[in-house]
Amino acid sequence: MKKKYIILILLFLICYLFFGFLVKYKMKNIKTNEVYTFGEVLKISHVQGSRAADFRYFIEGKIFTGSSMDFTDNITKEGSKYFVIVNKNNLEQAYILDCCPYDESKHFVPSEGLDKIPDAELQKKADEAFEEIFNSPLGRLLPPY
Question: What angle do CA 70, 88, 71 make, to 5 degrees?
Answer without folding.
Answer: 10
